[in-house]
Amino acid sequence: MNQLTGQATPEQIHQWKSQYKQGIYAIEVDDHIAYFKNPNRHEMNCAMSKASAEAALDMYDELAKRTLIGGSEEVLDDDQKFFGVVQQIKVKMEGKKATLVNL
Prior knowledge:
Layout: H1 10-19, E1 24-29, E2 32-37, H2 41-48, H3 58-67, E3 68-71, H4 74-77, H5 79-94
Antiparallel strand pairs: 1-2, 2-3
Helix pairs in contact: 2-3, 3-5
């Protein structure tokens, strides 16, 4: 298996898992990999404050930058790679599914 640009060691991944109790995840794009922590409320709020019809990607850019913990920063700097990252960040923004129960 070829090494991806930005690939972390198993030791680094273990350290991140210990450091970020809400969890971490990786996104691979082409031959690059970047690592992110799951966003908290503050990070989501900051990202969502960037939302606008004129600059629709700013929210995802902000969230990605606030939650990036390591790996290849090219996934954020290269537009084509970033578009792939955005698709995965959208999944993370959905969060856990909740159910409304009328009583």
